[in-house]
Amino acid sequence: MNKVILMGRLARDPDVRYSQNGDSPMAIARYTLAVDRRFSRGSGSNQEQSADFISCVAFGKSGEFAEKYLHKGTKIAVTGRIQTGSYTNKDGQKVYTTDVVVEDQEFAESKNANGGNGGGASYSNAGPAPEAIDDGFMNIAEGIDDEMPFGS
Q1: Domains contained in the chain, number
Q2: 116 and 97, same structural domain?
Q3: Tens-of-pLDDT digits for all 152 residues of the chain?
Q4: What is the pTM of this model?
Q5: Which domain range does residue 45 map to?
Q6: Residue 90, by phi and psi: left (phi above 0), alpha (psi -120 to 50) or beta?
Q7: I need a labelling partner for 114 at 20 to 30 A (CA). Which of 23, 43, 94, 151 fits?
């Protein structure tokens, strides 16, 4: 089985081109996904963070979606398959390629997550609504702590 699931941020805006298929050109979007890689050094539990830069290619409607909605820094989840290939460059050397052919792609965070209140999850309650303050966190009304689905 050849199945890949990745989550990361676009390292740059997608490069979108259209094939010359007669009456209906097809979108081909190429982008690089920066995927976090955590590892520990030595025997300690200190983790350093690095990233792998994975080449992805999306065809057709997926390519059009990438062109319209995806931009550098956007966090997305991708499912697809690995495809390898090779070509001979202008210097006569054989170059090997590995790409993820995108079958599905979706946003992995809300539109406001980078520059605002975070959005995403909600918690409804019969009590008064929390009020937003300037630091990006919300005040919780007195007495509501016991009703929260997680402890402090």
Answers
A1: 2
A2: no
A3: 999 999 999 999 999 999 987 778 999 999 999 999 877 665 555 667 789 999 999 999 999 999 999 999 999 999 999 999 999 999 999 999 999 999 999 999 887 765 543 333 323 333 344 444 455 455 555 555 555 455 54
A4: 0.67
A5: 4-108
A6: alpha
A7: 151
